[in-house]
């Protein structure tokens, strides 16, 4: 389980995480929603061990994230692969580091998403590029998968393919997937658990269907309401 | 598939070598061009050109070292590295090896090419000029070997200092490159001070006329110091990477 | 198909299947999509699909045979009850609406008769 306890992090004067207490439920697809600059990326980076907290702590299965990297698959928003690499080369690289790499899964996803593994990243379109990065992340049977804005700058068709690819390979109950995005409608039905952030704080939290049932509203409207309350 | 340390290091090194390969080939191509131009066009005043290509194997690897680190940030691959279940030491050791290999290929390539061209095109028989290498016994070869090792050790030290100062520079919120440069000068200064201080204390410099044995002692001491300080800077870099760096 | 974003998804998955049963699109013995395929096709969380399927099993509408898939097991009686419930629901809201608009039973009956025949002749 990934647990944040009184976690705070600031960059200069901006407080990206403001005393966050949060336990991400195990084995679920979790939507980390919120407007731009709410602290979603920082939360994911902290869970992946790429950001060091000013105070408080974050633990992954009881240890600091830096000691749990072999269980974490983190997909940042920006590019992280050398541009002259092919998908194949990147796969070879990942395979050497992670024993949870599943080659069968990797090949199936490539086929499903219509990608050629000889494709160089410099020649890829944005959609292909995003799909390739996702394939490389999902090819690992990682216990925790952290996706930061996996849909940004991608056309609708590629988005749909990515959503389907996510469901295809998801091992229920065994993997925890956190998807941080400000484009909620894309994955509204895909996520089971909702975490809404605003100004470095968690403002809404809970099971997606429970929230719909209680409020009689869509997740988007619940978020909007929470956002209005927050900014008052 | 099981993860092996060897395969991990191989992949890291392959990635770093891909980065410095271009610069290596560039210097080799430059040496080839200069030699061909000078010999075919029969340029007399070629010394400046040769100085230029002989210096390249010493300067270009340093440029490569700086770029190896900087590109990780500018290209975003630092995100990839920091997500890997690998500590800082293999990551920077692989970079250091790539720089040293680049240096070796460049020196051997540049000097080798030049010697070949002198043999092919030289008007006077150049053999006597080179023959000392083979004619002189033991000591000369040893001395040359030692000199190359000291050169290599020096490059390792400077490269480790570059990585160390760049990592330190990343911890500063502003003017990271400028800070890295200041840290670099400081780390070299410290290295020299430590080596000179220790050398003065350890080595028997009192004997008035330097004996050959003393020269060897100094050489070994120098090489040892270079390697120890390079190792320390590399370890410090790995520590910063493991415990301090963030994105 | 798109789900109504304001209501729990698992309920809508159950309703989707009930509707298919009542309209005859699904019959007893038919195989329905596996949970995984359903989740993929409709881009719904697999755990949500699982919850819906579990409730449908509890209601006795479907049965999952290990290694073979999920099959419709609805009985005629169940179907009848389902239809009655749905009809009741539709009638109830219709009657409420007519009452609010001030129609009498006789007027409503005539209107129903006329509209019914008009619709029938269209086909």
Description:
The complex is a heterotrimer of chains A (232), B (247) and C (123). Chain A is an alpha/beta fold and 232 residues long. Chain A has helices at 40-48, 87-97, 103-112, 126-138, 156-168, 208-215, 219-231; strands spanning 2-11, 14-24, 29-33, 55-60, 72-75, 144-148, 176-181, 193-198, 201-207. Chain A has one domain (2-231): P-loop containing nucleotide triphosphate hydrolases (Rossmann fold, 3-Layer(aba) Sandwich). The radius of gyration of chain A is 17 Å and the shape is globular. Chain B has 247 residues and is mainly α. Chain B folds into two domains: 1-134, no CATH class; 136-247, no CATH class. Chain B has helices at residues 5-41, 47-74, 77-83, 88-121, 127-135, 139-170, 176-202, 212-243. Chain C is mainly α and 123 residues long. Helix content of chain C is 64%, strand content 8%. Chain C is built from five helices and three strands. Chain C has helices at residues 9-22, 35-42, 46-58, 76-101, 105-122; strands at 31-32, 62-65, 69-72. In chain C, strand 2 and strand 3 (69-72) form a beta hairpin. The mean pLDDT of chain C is 90. Chains in contact: A-B, A-C. At the A-B interface, helix 2 of A face helix 1 and helix 3 of B.
- Quote the distance from N terminus to C terminus of chain B: 30 Å
- Kindly give the count of domains of chain B: 2
What's the story with the biggest beta sheet of chain A? Answer: 6 strands, mixed
> What overall geometry of chain A do the principal axes of the alpha carbons give?
globular
**CATH top-level class of chain A:** Alpha Beta
Summarize the biggest pleated sheet of chain B: none
Number of domains of chain A: 1
Assign the CATH topology of chain A.
Answer: Rossmann fold
**Which class of secondary structure composition applies to the elements of chain A?**
alpha/beta
Instruction: Count the beta strands of chain B.
Output: 0
Give start-end ranges of low-pLDDT stretches of chain A: none
What level of helicity do the residues of chain A show?
25-40%
Short description:
The complex is a heterotrimer of chains A (232), B (247) and C (123). By secondary structure, chain B is mainly α. Chain B contains eight helices and no strands.
């Amino acid at each position: 389980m990934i647990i944040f306890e009184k976690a705070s992090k600031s960059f200069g004067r901006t407080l990206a995480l403001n005393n966050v207490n949060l336990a991400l439920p195990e084995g679920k697809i979790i939507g980390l929603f919120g407007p731009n600059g709410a602290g979603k990326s920082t939360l994911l980076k902290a869970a992946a061990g790429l950001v060091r907290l000013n105070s408080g702590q974050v633990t992954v299965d009881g240890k600091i994230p830096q000691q749990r990297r072999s269980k974490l698959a983190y997909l940042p928003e920006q590019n992280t692969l050398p541009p002259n690499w092919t998908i194949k080369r990147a796969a070879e690289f990942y395979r050497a580091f992670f024993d949870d790499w599943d080659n069968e899964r990797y090949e199936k996803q490539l086929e499903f998403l219509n990608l050629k593994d000889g494709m160089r990243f410099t020649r890829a379109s944005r959609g292909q590029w995003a799909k390739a990065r996702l394939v490389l992340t999902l090819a690992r049977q990682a216990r925790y998968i952290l996706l930061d804005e996996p849909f940004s700058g991608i056309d609708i068709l590629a988005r749909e393919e990515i959503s389907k690819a996510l469901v295809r390979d998801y091992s229920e109950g065994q993997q925890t997937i956190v998807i941080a995005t400000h484009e909620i409608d894309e994955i509204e039905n895909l996520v089971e658990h909702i975490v809404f952030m605003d100004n470095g704080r968690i403002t809404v939290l809970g099971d997606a269907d429970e929230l719909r049932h209680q409020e009689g509203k869509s997740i988007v409207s619940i978020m909007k309401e929470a956002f209005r309350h927050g900014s008052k | 598939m099981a993860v092996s340390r060897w395969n991990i290091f191989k992949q890291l090194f392959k990635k770093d070598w891909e980065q410095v390969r271009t610069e290596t080939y560039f210097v080799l191509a430059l040496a080839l061009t200069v030699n061909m131009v000078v010999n075919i066009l029969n340029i007399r005043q070629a010394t400046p050109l040769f100085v230029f290509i002989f210096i390249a194997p010493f300067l270009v690897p340093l440029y490569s070292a700086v770029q190896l680190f900087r590109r990780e940030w500018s290209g975003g691959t630092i995100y990839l590295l920091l997500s890997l279940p690998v500590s800082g030491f293999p990551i920077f050791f692989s970079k250091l090896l790539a720089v040293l290999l680049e240096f070796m290929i460049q020196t051997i390539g540049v000097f080798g090419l030049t010697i070949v061209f002198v043999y092919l095109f030289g008007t006077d028989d150049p053999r006597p000029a080179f023959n000392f290498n083979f004619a002189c016994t033991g000591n000369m070869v040893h001395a040359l070997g030692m000199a190359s090792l000291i050169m290599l050790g020096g490059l390792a030290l400077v490269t480790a200092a570059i990585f160390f100062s760049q990592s330190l520079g990343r911890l500063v919120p502003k003017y990271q490159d400028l800070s890295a440069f200041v840290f670099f000068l400081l780390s070299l200064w410290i290295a020299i001070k430590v080596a000179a201080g220790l050398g003065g204390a350890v080595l028997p410099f009192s004997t008035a006329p330097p004996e050959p044995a003393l020269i060897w002692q100094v050489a070994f001491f120098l090489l040892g110091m270079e390697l120890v300080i390079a190792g320390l800077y590399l370890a410090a870099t790995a520590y910063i990477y493991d415990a301090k760096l963030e994105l | 198909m798109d789900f109504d974003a304001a209501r729990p998804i698992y309920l809508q998955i159950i309703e989707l299947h009930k509707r298919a049963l009542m309209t005859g699109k699904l019959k007893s013995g038919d195989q329905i999509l596996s949970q995984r395929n359903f989740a993929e096709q409709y881009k719904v969380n697999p755990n949500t699909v699982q919850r819906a399927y579990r409730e449908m099993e509890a209601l006795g509408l479907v049965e999952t045979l290990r290694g073979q898939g999920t099959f419709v097991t609805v009985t005629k009686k169940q179907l009848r009850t389902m239809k009655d419930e749905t009809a009741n629901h539709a009638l109830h809201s219709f009657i409420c609406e007519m009452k609010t608009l001030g129609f009498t039973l006789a007027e409503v009956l005539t209107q129903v008769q006329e509209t019914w025949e008009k619709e029938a002749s269209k086909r």
